Amino acid sequence: MEPSEGKALPNVGSSNSSQQTGTTRDLIWWILIACCGLAFIGAVGPWATLANFADIYGTSREGWLVIAAAGIALAILLVSETKPTKIRVNALFVVALAGLAIAGISAYDWAHISEIDSKIPGAGLVAGFLGKQELFKSSWGIWLVTASGVLLAVLAVARIVLLTRANQASSLT
Questions:
Q1: In angstroms, what CA-CA distances link 80 with 35, 37, 75?
Q2: In a domain? residue 127
Q3: How far apart are CA 36 and CA 77, in angstroms?
Q4: Which residues 6+ apart lie within 8 Å of 34 measured at CB?
Q5: Whether 133 contacts 127, CB under 8 Å
């Protein structure tokens, strides 16, 4: 018989303070925290590269909005974790919306990076002279922001489902 057989798993929806210690806090919560951190890193990182010579950083454009949304999501996650399940579920809805906002902002900018070449007169000529197909291309910062925003939204919804199911199960017993 395996050691885990017949034993109850920790209840993620429990408001019992012994369940809220750092060692038993669920993995999704920690990944949500990490997603906020990754959004911060990506927001200050390069979102576009100009002919492999110069970087355009997120904070020169909408990266500040990403930092604000990630900061709000992080604060909500930290403050609401010790609250009752209903408050945590409502807070996670806001976190999911913040994740969608982060992903939307970065996806919008990412889509417009490729359009920059067509808006700058002579950009194709300069790119061809430098041996490049395009003058501007997306960079790792915008990729990281987009991925962390999507993951933040998806995992917030997953945690809402888990908390709601655990709360319903505990109210039936």
A1: 17, 18, 8
A2: yes
A3: 10
A4: none
A5: yes
pTM of the model as a whole: 0.75
Could you tell me the pLDDT band of residue 125, with boundaries at 50, 70 and 90? low
- Euclidean distance between CA atoms 8 and 91, whole angstroms: 27
pLDDT digits (tens, 9 = 90+) for 10-20: 444 444 433 44
Residue 4 counted as domain residue? no
Per-residue DSSP letters for 23-69?
A: TTS-HHHHHHHHHHHHHHHHHHSEEEEETTTEEEEGGGTTHHHHHHH
Please state the domain count of the chain: 1
Q: How many CB atoms lie within 10 A of CB 9?
A: 8
Domain ranges, residue 89: 26-172
- Which of 2-16, 70-84, 102-116, 127-141 has the weakest average pLDDT? 2-16
Domain harbouring 45, CATH code:
1.20.140
Answer yes or no: is pLDDT of 3 > 70: no
Q: CA 133, 127, 55: angle at the middle one, nearest 5? A: 95
Within a domain: 12: no
The answer to whether position 19 is within a domain reads no
Q: Could you read off the pLDDT of 149-169 as tens digits, one per residue?
A: 999 999 999 999 988 888 887
User: Which tokens in the block code for residue 169?
Assistant: 């199960």
Q: Which two tokens stand for residue 16?
A: 């019992």
